[in-house]
Amino acid sequence: MGKKIVVVGMGYVGIPVAVAFAKKGFEVVGINRSRPKVDMINNGECPIKGKEPKLQELLKKLVSEKKLSATQDFSVCKDARAILIAVQTPFNKEKMEPEYSPLESAVSDVGKNLSKGSLVIIESTIAPTTMDKVVRPILENMSGMVAGKDFYLANCPERVMPGRLLQNIREYDRVVGGINEESAQMAVELYKHIVEGELFPTDSLTAEIVKTAENAYRDVQIAFANEIALICEKLGVNTYEVRGFVNKCPFRDMHIPGSGVGGHCLPKDSWLLAYGVKNELSPKIIALAREINESMPHHMVELTEKALQEGGIKIGEAIISVLGLAYLEDSDDTRNSPALPIVKELMGKATKIRLHDPFVKEFEGLDVLHNIEDAIKGSDCIVLVTAHTEYKNLNLERIKELMRTSIMVDGRNVFERDVCNRKGFIYRGIGK
Ligand code: SAJ
User: Fold this and answer.
1) Would you say the CB of residue 341 lies under 6 angstroms from ligand 1?
2) How far, in Å, CA of 211 to CA of 86, rounded?
3) 211, 232, 268, 432: which one is catalytic?
4) Would you call 211 a catalytic residue per the annotation?
5) In whole angstroms, what is the distance from residue 362 CA to residue 352 CA?
6) Cross-strand partners of 200
7) I need a labelling partner for 326 at 20 to 30 A (CA). Which of 73, 185, 364, 377 fits?
8) Which of 1, 158, 169 is nearest to 86 (CA)?
9) Is the CB of 100 under 6 A from ligand 1?
């Protein structure tokens, strides 16, 4: 097979993997539904705007060298050596099922344009059994060929992280699932060109479980930390101190309690894992962990109401400044951010809510302030949701001068309770 590689889905996963292969001399074509994104890439502009070292300059260089291009046309899949699919796979909590339409339509369009001997790889995170029950049948029906024989089929779950997209692809070990051994081997040979980490071949179902389990594992860990935080609040002990001492014990790794668990991975991957065994088994721990993590934003509002009460402020008359809308510190990514349920619940209760975030441009159609003093001036209460570096450097004296009432609700252990109390703040914090 030639050197042509097609990547379907020009997002957080597709763009860096397309750049990684193009950098190694492959002729890479990215497919995306939206024309504007295709045009941006062909103009050498990277659609991902967060801090991603080297990604923008590399993309521009590879496009100018004609090693990387983008299109909406699936016919480029013909005679491709490999076709990687990296489209989104959100989970619909109402229906309790994955939203697979982007995946199904991408797989179907690839199937219609599939050549004999090509290798199809799914990088998206999918529920266990999806390769066998969804991907393989569509590819075989649309191509009229047999998977594992006429073409090869594998799944290599992505392990990208905003801020380190290219680095993770290069450095992280990867699990490579194949619908048969030959498919897994073909995929390992391909990834060897861009992955310096170890490549572990296995079957597709195992790879599907590994990906969703590794994130469910983290979600359960965080839920445990949040439960310890709630216990410490009741007993009046600082959970971050408890965590420090617990982790002095070998084989302990208590995670960090906080205002909630956001992002494009953890909130959905546990549900994808559970979906893989629906009708057979209802996993308890991962479902309960989700429930605990999803309850933390409401707990932030409870802490806020208690703090305002202590300050003699009726929440219906309060002016509240919400600091931090992104789901992760120093990121502009607001996907599933805990800030959303917090802002929604507060909007129903307080007179005025001001939103601030140094990176987020727009948030649910609401005004976002980018000058911290504008956000704090005249307000009664700060609700700190995200630990952006800018907040860690705030001057408490200055804040006190600006506020009408000095109340601090700290969702990310940015401030110390006794320091805030000494400076005249009423202080509440997750886990304190
Ligand atoms: N969070 C906590 N406490 C913690 C860790 C995280 O409350 O101890 C919160 C964060 O504030 C955030 C959410 O959880 O709102 C998710 O944080 P994250 O650090 O897991 O960041 P993500 O969502 O970007 O997770 C990615 C995942 N990578 C992939 O799925 C490929 C995850 O598997 C990685 O473990 C994680 O990055 C990482 O290690 O940073």
Assistant:
1) no
2) 14
3) 211
4) yes
5) 18
6) 175
7) 377
8) 158
9) no
